[in-house]
Amino acid sequence: MKKTLLLGVAALSLFAAGCGAGSGAGDEDTIQLGAMFEKTGPVSAYGTAESNGVKLAIKEINEAGGILDKQIELTEYDTKSDNVEATSIATRLATEDNVVAIVGPATSGAVQAATQPITRAEVPLITPSGTADNLTLTESGDVQPFVFRTSFQDSFQGVALANFAMDSLGAKKAVIIGDSSSDYAVGLTNAFKDTYEGEIVAEEYFTQDDTDFSAILTKIQNQDFDFIYLPAYYEQAGLILKQAREMGLDQPVLGGDGFSNQALLDLAGTENVSDVYYSAHFSLENEDEQVQTFIDNYTAEYDTAPDAFSALAYDAVYLVAQAIEDGGEATPEAITDALESITDFDGVTGTFSIDENHNPVKSTLIIELQDGKETSTQEIQP
Amino acid sequence: MKLINKTTIGWLVVAIAGFLVLQLAVTTGIISAYYEITLVTILINIILAVGLNLIIGFSGQFSLGHAGFMAIGAYTAGIITKYFPTYTGLFLGILAGVILTSIVALIVGIPTLRLKGDYLAIATLGVAEIIRIVIVNMQSVTNGAAGLSGIPYLSKWPLIYVFTVLTILLVANYTQSSPGRATIAIREDEIAAESMGVNTTKYKTIAFILGAATAAIGGALHASYFSVIRPGDFTFNKSVDVLIIVVFGGIGSITGSVVAAILLGFLNVFLQPFGALRMIIYALALIGIMIFKPSGLLGNKEFTVSGLLRLFNRKSAQGEG
Questions:
Q1: Cα angle value A264/A43/A193 (rounded, 5°)
Q2: What pTM does this model have?
Q3: Domain Leucine-binding protein: where (chain A) (predicted)?
Q4: Does the structural domain B32-320 have CATH classification 1.10.3470?
Q5: Is A76–B228 a contact, with Cβ atoms under 8 angstroms apart?
């Protein structure tokens, strides 16, 4: 009995010691940066790409001598694409690992799950791709003091696409085929409907598990319309494109940044990806020197071309670096203050300033695809 | 039998001692904000696993719809507390969630539990998906795919602890009661039980509804603690997570479910720094357990105060002898 008791006490004190060690302040000579991404689970494609972007940016900064002569040290966790895990990890980063800022997570739900713990701990969080409009706002409509992002929000994309349809395509009649099971697509649909002044001939919805869209496409086949608005992720968008083109529906198709993945072309077949326009954060064809350097470095590091997600995450790290330099010290308070007043930040996803609602004020690119190739890009200002 | 005897007092002491230890750890800072989340996750997992164990372990029916019932509880409590951000609102929400879940479980249970075999598994699998799709499409009430956020933070950990104790109490007492014994008889041999005059459908349905109702409680507490719920939180994977705890701890052992929930909770904490590798380690740990202890950690053994008392009595008797 005594032995068990002793063992129990030993285990408990070990446990306590472990907690104590975790909460010790980081090394004075380094800057502790936290990252949390969906590296496993259903949305791991986004999380992994963003994690790569973050690591590349940190490597570059450290090789260039760090910020304020300090090296950045990264503490990274995987959220398993699980929101409870996101809450847990955000708390761990903010209170146990004492990071000065957190980059990630990739999806809006995980950002919402992380918001409460980081707000309590007063550590700023920069999400590369959490695009839901209300992420940076509290329930009462005030700004969330510690949540920032480097991507434009859903409503901005929907508005930009509606304007593009009216002004550049001159299209009068739209058909909406939307994903009703993702908040991303729902946000894009609502913003489009509010802005688009032409006629919406038909609205059809599907959910993320669908693979056969012939019922929807047959329904709209006999309608008279000028283009299809397709707010969806690439998994479904690719299949819809393929099935629509094979049925002879050759009207232009407009979509959001969910299209920007190689898988879209693989699923649809390049011959079916013509007259496709989508809004994007980032284009591989951009001839800007900074962008080309990023693409070269990324390709050298990971043997694959970067996508918009890695570019946004890369910018998020540089944004934090900029904030540390502006604020003059690497503390959560100084970074939060500096982030709020960042103007004309020059990133690979464009030049932007942070507005009063912690959103970047940036332009979006509308990329045109013909036979699966980017043939033109048009910049739309906010 | 008197209500106040050595056994009940013993259980009361265990429950209160557990609370005091946790309270002490929280006030002294051993359980920091981060470990508090782990604690709450473990407690909610205990509620879910003990409830599922009643269905799987004691009535012998296989349910794959725990996440669906949890979702009903979470959304009901979430919506009600958003309108009434008080404890009354929370309890009302939990109650409404339990009632709604019981009705759904009754509707699913009556036709499928009249049959022998694993029909319940297929039906509950479908129902959980239906519940999730309904939530996604009830845009005006549930905010669709974006889910509910800003749910008032009411279920602090002591409240969740109390509900965990109550759930264990409910399930443990049910298994010791007359209907509980009938339920276990069905698990052991359905035909024999039926021939002895046990109304099999009735007792299977009771166990199923009780299990589903505890899932609703777990869901409601989850919503109120984490403040954010989305339909994507309640997929088939969530049901499997709970199922793993039950199987890992031992099918038919409430103690096993509790121990497994605690162990897996800690395992997750210690494996967090390993990133993607932890999913492999986690899986290996589960495979290891299933190879070396196919009946789960505790098989169908239980920790009981009466058992402990018996052990002490035997020891002291030996000492005297």
A1: 65
A2: 0.86
A3: 30-372
A4: yes
A5: no
A44-98: pLDDT as tens digits: 888 999 999 999 999 999 999 999 999 999 999 999 888 899 999 999 999 999 9
Q: B204, B285, B190, B217: which is closest to B51 by C-alpha? A: B217
Q: Which two tokens stand for residue B76?
A: 């009901």
Q: Does B231 touch chain A (CB under 8 A)?
A: yes
| Residue in A85, A120, A183 nearest the CB of B146 | A183
In this structure, the strands spanning A350-354 and A227-229 are unpaired
Stated as kind and residue range, the H or E segment containing B174 is helix B157-176
Q: Is A178 near chain B, with CB under 8 Å?
A: no
Instruction: Show residues of chain A in contact with B222, CB under 8 Å.
Output: 84
Give yes or no for B153 touching A (CB within 8 A). Answer: yes
Q: According to CATH, what is the number of the domain A12-151+288-362?
A: 3.40.50.2300
Q: Which residue is it, tokens 């283009």? A: A227
Instruction: Please choose, from the candidates A205, A225, A226, A228, the residue with its C-alpha nearest in 3D space to the C-alpha of residue A215.
Output: A205
Q: Which residues of chain B have pLDDT under 70?
A: 1-2, 319-321
Residue of B nearest to A96 (CA): B34
| Spatial contact of B58 and B205, defined as CB atoms under 8 Å apart | no
A89 to B272: CB separation less than 8 angstroms, yes or no: yes
pLDDT for A315 equals 95
Tell whether B30 lies on the interface with A, counting CB pairs under 8 A.
yes
Task: Tell me if B228 and A182 make a contact (CB, 8 A cut-off).
Answer: no
For chain A, the domains span 12-151+288-362, 155-280
| Domain extent listing, chain B | 1-31, 32-320
Dihedral (Cα; B246, B249, B253, B256), 10-degree rounding: -120
- Using CA atoms, how far apart are residues B133 and B149, in angstroms rounded to an integer? 19
pLDDT digits (tens, 9 = 90+) for B182-205: 999 999 999 999 999 999 999 999
Q: How far apart are CA A87 and CA A95, in angstroms?
A: 12
SS (H, E, C) B34-48: HHHHHHHHHHHHHHH
Q: Is the Cβ of B275 closer than 8 Å to some Cβ of chain A?
A: yes
**A382 vs A18, more confident:** A382
Chain-chain contact of B275 with A80 (C-beta, under 8 angstroms): no
Q: Which residues of B touch A78 (CB under 8 A)?
A: 272, 275-276, 278
